[in-house]
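S.,

Sequence below, as promised.
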Amino acid sequence: MVSEILALFASIAFALFAIYGWLGLHYSTPLTATVVSLAARTITLGVTVAFFGGIPVYVTQALLVFVLLGVLQSAISLLTFIGLQKIGTSRSQPLRNSYPLWSAAIAIALVGERAGVAVLFGTVMVVIGVILISWKPDAAPPSYRWWHVIFSGGAGLFAGIAFPLRRYGLTITNEPVFFSFVVAIVSLVGTLPYTLWTRGERALVWHARGVGHFILSGFFEALGALLTLMALTSGRVVIVAPIVATTPLFSLLISLIFFRAKETVTGLTILGTLAVVGGSIAIALAR
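The prediction came back faster than expected:
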């Protein structure tokens, strides 16, 4: 049950990452959010690596896998923040958190993981629950266009690909702390070319309050990434990915506590919560 507990805490960390990122976007741009949060993530994980004894012995093949994951993560981060700005948290989160379906399909088809009926049922229930919790058709931003869902949907697809890759890399060299740092560095460097040619309203905007929120967002993203890798050291992708995807449930709970005037609980919210909880229990018991 250790991997499930770590995945659960990762989900809470990612919920805080999304909330602080969304708050920061009220004052700045998705590109600024990506750069600042990735920088904060890199610094946080760099300190963690130093605390745990520095650079360990590793296999080059594993390093290459996590370098690739870093490139992928830079795209995921940018697409996630663009999705938050373009279609709002209520629409972006269900699409972004559809990745357990992609992860399960890849892990079963290519990695050879096994998933019984309970795991598959639980995964579908978690995804359905996330959609019910997050979907609010009447809350679209004024600039919303139907094709904007491509940003959050793409982030979900890439995140689904990343989970099996993380698991594969850790089977070669099991150093989750160090490789979290590698991913963070490559992700940050990967965003720099985009900053050089981006102009206008999408460019970097250094608003103090926005940057402060993005720093907190990056810290919690680092924590979530580290906990996810630690969960994958002993847990299967088909188990860990759906539990991490329960992020919107915790986003809702945190929003209800700290932003009561902005969140309402509906019948769909309750059904979604029951689906997420029930699906998570089914996955955990199927271990």
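The radius of gyration is 18 Å.

Coffee later?
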